[in-house]
């Protein structure tokens, strides 16, 4: 292990353009409960949708230093986009195009926020690529202390890369890096063991026991010290020697089949069975877990999905049953899935809509079959929207949205702007616009001489689909806009349902779906129910929180149940559907 610098010698520190001074100040707006899956009596696991810096600050206010294990798999700063792929549909899951200083400026304060959530016995594992691991390690030395470094693990993902065959003048890059740091010397730790490799087994466990087929190696039963060491001398299986054990013990080994004699008269040796050995203690090069391929059953179509076996190893090594595991870059949800199966509590966070919908679908399915417990879905976006509104003011916020929408400001009563022949209303309040409000705005638009109405909002109350008129289009301000990006409003997907009366009650059937296509916000097309990958129903509607009482997911064979079971309740029903691109559409009936 390399020598550590002492406190009097100072420390190595990495600087870059734009580096902020820690601790980073992040406003801790409260998280909004969006959905409950199952009923929890005490603790509920959490899937949080939104910017992880906002979510981590809110968790610090609520939980304090309560986390036992942090695993994060942040972007690798490779200068490319990564995708969610389902069938022929391909959508950007996240863009990994930070570029050097920007990447470190993103990661540095988040590491500090994570540290504030960790117990004194906690461990953090940061999964990074070879392009940035050297920078990230120095940053982690600064945040966690160089003395708390535990391991730098090389995870061999692939057996080989044909970089040379593609003209590259370098060696094939086949591994990622895991940087492990603890909060202190009392960190939770379990030494894991790996199976012996094939060459070791072939060399040392070369004997196979007749009848059982068990492999074993043998070791001497003789005692090299002889009489001088006080070892007993007697005849055993026709051989007189000084032996390691007394005669009674030797006879017991023989009766239990633990003695190996290659031939009559040969010196007996002791058997050690391969299947009884613990294996070799795990080292810092992991070659026995491969990256996921298309044939793996756990694949969900997420480009950078990590294998469950990798997370299982980290969870078992650095936590105990009942501990709290946190992942601030949840991606496809592997950390939550593994934590649930291993009996750990979990909190996972991601701002990407494709990542959020994939993770939620995965966890819903696990909860339905009993592999995961109840969990809550929380949203950091409302707090981000409120902070943005307070920072720039309503008028400026509306001006920015109109500019991104390609509309001109034109205040005429309740109308805020014009885009071509259409009047534009920008509704940026916390309460989603209702069908009644949209109908009122349509009347105002017509009074102002507009041929159509475009309503732009953060989100809409599900009843808007009841207003069936071609003169109105609904546009959502993307979540990324509230998080600081210049993102244009997008058309709201439209879900069509049919109500079927049965003797047991109403049943709902998906009949059609239309929504944006490709990456063009103005595009719109009838996509059909074939585009839906999941839908869920809440037939009790307890306030603003969605509680799915029934859900269906498209299987690997492409089949999706399009008709719900009969609903016993006669009141309002809210339906939520997700398409292959991760877009969410909500519809209310009754």
TrEMBL record:
Where is the DNA methylase N-4/N-6 domain positioned along the sequence?
A: 67-353
Q: What class of enzyme is it?
A: transferase
Q: Which domain of life is it from?
A: Bacteria
Its UniProt entry gives the catalysed reaction(s) as: a 2'-deoxyadenosine in DNA + S-adenosyl-L-methionine = an N(6)-methyl-2'-deoxyadenosine in DNA + S-adenosyl-L-homocysteine + H(+)
Q: Which InterPro entries match?
A: DNA_methylase_N4/N6, DNA_methylase_N6_adenine_CS, N4/N6-MTase_EcoPI_Mod-like, SAM-dependent_MTases_sf
Q: What keywords tag this UniProt record?
A: Methyltransferase, S-adenosyl-L-methionine, Transferase
- Under which EC number(s) is this enzyme classified? 2.1.1.72
The family annotation for this protein states: Belongs to the N(4)/N(6)-methyltransferase family.
Q: What is this protein called?
A: site-specific DNA-methyltransferase (adenine-specific)
């Amino acid at each position: 292990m390399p020598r550590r610098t002492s406190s009097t010698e100072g420390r190595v520190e990495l600087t870059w353009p734009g580096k902020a001074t820690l601790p980073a100040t992040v406003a801790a707006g409260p998280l909004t409960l969006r959905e409950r899956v199952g009923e929890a009596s005490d603790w509920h696991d959490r899937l949080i949708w939104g910017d992880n810096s906002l979510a981590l600050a809110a968790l610090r206010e609520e939980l304090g230093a309560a986390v036992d294990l942090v695993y994060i798999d942040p972007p690798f700063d490779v200068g490319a986009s990564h995708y969610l792929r389902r069938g022929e549909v391909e959508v950007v899951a996240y863009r990994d195009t930070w570029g050097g200083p920007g990447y470190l400026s993103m990661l540095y304060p988040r590491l500090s926020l994570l540290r504030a959530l960790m117990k004194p016995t906690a461990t953090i594992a940061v999964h990074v690529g070879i392009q940035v691991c050297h920078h990230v390690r120095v940053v982690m030395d600064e945040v966690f202390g160089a003395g708390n470094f535990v391991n730098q693990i090389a995870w061999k993902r692939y057996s080989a890369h044909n970089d040379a065959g593609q003209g590259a003048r370098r060696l094939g890059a086949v591994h990622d890096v895991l940087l492990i740091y603890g909060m202190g010397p009392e960190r939770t730790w379990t030494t894991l063991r790996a199976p012996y490799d094939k060459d070791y087994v072939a060399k040392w466990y070369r004997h196979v026991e007749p009848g059982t087929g068990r492999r074993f190696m043998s070791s001497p039963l003789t005692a090299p010290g002889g009489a001088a060491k006080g070892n007993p001398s007697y005849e055993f299986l026709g051989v007189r020697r000084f032996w390691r054990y007394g005669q009674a013990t030797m006879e017991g080994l023989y009766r239990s089949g633990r003695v190996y004699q290659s031939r009559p008269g040969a010196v007996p040796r002791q058997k050690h069975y391969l299947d009884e050995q613990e294996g070799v203690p795990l080292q810092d090069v992991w070659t026995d877990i491969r990256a996921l391929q298309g044939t793996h059953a756990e694949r969900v179509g997420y480009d950078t999905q990590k294998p469950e076996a990798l997370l299982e190893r980290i969870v078992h090594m650095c936590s105990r049953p009942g501990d709290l595991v946190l992942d601030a870059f949840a991606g496809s949800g592997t950390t939550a899935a593994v934590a649930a199966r291993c009996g750990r509590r979990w909190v996972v966070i991601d701002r990407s809509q494709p990542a959020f919908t994939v993770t939620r679908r995965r966890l819903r399915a696990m909860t339905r079959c009993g592999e995961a417990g109840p969990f809550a879905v929380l949203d950091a976006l409302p707090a981000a929207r409120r902070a943005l509104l307070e920072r720039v003011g309503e008028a400026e916020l509306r001006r920015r949205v109109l500019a991104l929408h390609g509309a001109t400001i034109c205040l005429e009563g309740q109308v805020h702007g014009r885009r071509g022949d259409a009047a534009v209303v920008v509704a940026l309040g916390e309460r989603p616009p209702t069908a009644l409000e949209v109908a009122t705005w349509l009347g105002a638009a017509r009074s102002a001489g507009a041929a159509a109405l475009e309503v732009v909002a953060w989100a809409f109350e599900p009843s808007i689909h009841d207003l069936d008129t071609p003169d109105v289009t609904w546009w959502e301000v993307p979540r990324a806009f509230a998080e600081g990006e210049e993102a244009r409003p997008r058309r709201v997907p439209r879900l069509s349902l049919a109500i079927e009366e049965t003797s047991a009650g109403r049943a709902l059937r998906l009949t059609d779906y239309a929504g944006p296509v490709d990456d063009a916000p103005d595009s719109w097309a009838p996509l059909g129910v074939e585009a839906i990958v999941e839908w869920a129903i809440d037939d009790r509607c307890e306030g603003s929180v969605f509680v799915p009482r029934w859900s269906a997911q498209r299987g690997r064979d492409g089949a999706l149940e399009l008709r719900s079971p009969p609903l016993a309740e006669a009141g309002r029903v809210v339906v939520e559907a997700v398409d292959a691109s991760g877009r969410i559409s909500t519809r209310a009936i009754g």
